[in-house]
């Protein structure tokens, strides 16, 4: 194990092995611990304010979130303290809450600063920068709908090779924009382009901001960036832009058909299922984003209002919705979505930190697709989401077969074009169409 894990496990009251298992690995644990350290002071202040105002509802919501976060970090004792306060607050006993919260705040503060110290000493993550990173998560997948096959080809001049590559991409079904680095701005393409291709030649890209902007777009928003050039040209570029910015590097002379197949493989990133995760707990948002982000397109939202606004812009394949949140609660968000014709069919899985029978019955009374306990670890949650999408895919295929059979039974004269509509974009659709195109080639 690394120095971080050893130091983290030495914090009194921390079970490092439990935290590692729940977080799904050390890298995720460091990320979640950094978020806990960066947001801890804010949580302490919020709980102090709620106690001062005798706001039992707010106290319940805050300690409910802290209960799950502490369990995730292996701080079982702190989690049990939060759970005890939550039960008392739900019973309405403000006097007992006043007795329990101050010592809990002392323990919470001790954990926050102990974790902050380990993160600062034993990882390359700045705890203070963790919140900024979390705020940027929602922008990472802001690719406009229908832009999955949009490609920007960046090259200097109108060379034969550039034109040939452009034609090859067009023949494969891509929408291609050929731009000149000296004249055209790259920024206007950041939200409507999935793939950027930097074609090197005589122009060395020195003394220009284009490379920095390109790296920022492709790393920050998870776009695909390919580099084509000679060894010398590529060496020059890698002295200005990090190797990690690129999805692939190709040497000249280029096999254009082989290259296009690589582009198709790369763009499968955008055939992933899209998940909105809605939770006011930044620590848990960090965890879910890490766990699910390697396989799905994840957008994190910190409130019910933010979720309703985001859904107006784009439709997810699944919403993972915190049951208890300040402002609009999970059930309130669900009711709004179910009342709208355009959103009523979006599947919703509630996230809850309470596992007693009475609470689960209440959660399921709102008829979500399912519920997930926040105490589950990374592996269990990923397995549950995988199973959900596999079952959804199976049911969709069965429905398609039923619809096809029904259409086949209609006499030819009665079939009308108006009966057919294009399906909404969903994960897998783009990938399947690419595979068929590849076979044709």
Structure notes:
The protein is an alpha/beta fold. It folds into 3 domains: 123 residues, Four Helix Bundle (Hemerythrin (Met), subunit A); 120 residues, Rossmann fold, CATH 3.40.50; 120 residues, Rossmann fold (3-Layer(aba) Sandwich), CATH 3.40.50. The chain is built from 17 helices and 10 strands. The protein has a 5-stranded parallel sheet, with helices on both faces. α3 packs antiparallel against α6. The protein is globular, with a radius of gyration of 25 Å.
Topology:
Layout lengths: L2 H7 L6 H8 L2 H27 L3 H17 L3 H16 L2 H29 L4 H14 L9 E5 L5 H12 L3 E5 L15 E5 L10 H11 L3 E6 L1 H8 L9 E4 L4 H11 L7 E5 L3 H12 L3 E5 L2 H10 L4 E5 L7 H10 L8 E5 L4 H8 L5 E4 L4 H31 L20 H12 L1
Parallel strand pairs: 1-2, 1-3, 3-4, 4-5, 6-7, 6-8, 8-9, 9-10
Helix pairs in contact: 1-6, 3-4, 3-6, 3-7, 3-12, 4-5, 5-6, 12-16, 13-14
> What percentage of amino acids are in beta strands?
5-15%
Helix content: 55-70%
Q: Distance between the terminal alpha carbons, to the nearest Å?
A: 48 Å
Which class of the largest domain in CATH terms? Mainly Alpha
Strand order of the largest sheet: 2-1-3-4-5
Q: Tell me which CATH architecture of the largest domain applies here.
A: Up-down Bundle
Overall 3D form: globular
Order of helices and strands: HHHHHHHEHEEHEHEHEHEHEHEHEHH
- What is the overall number of helices? 17
Helix/strand class: alpha/beta
Q: And the CATH topology of the largest domain?
A: Four Helix Bundle (Hemerythrin (Met), subunit A)
Strand tally is: 10
Low-confidence stretches: 129-141, 412-441
**Using only CA atoms, what is the Rg?**
25 Å
Largest sheet: 5 strands, parallel
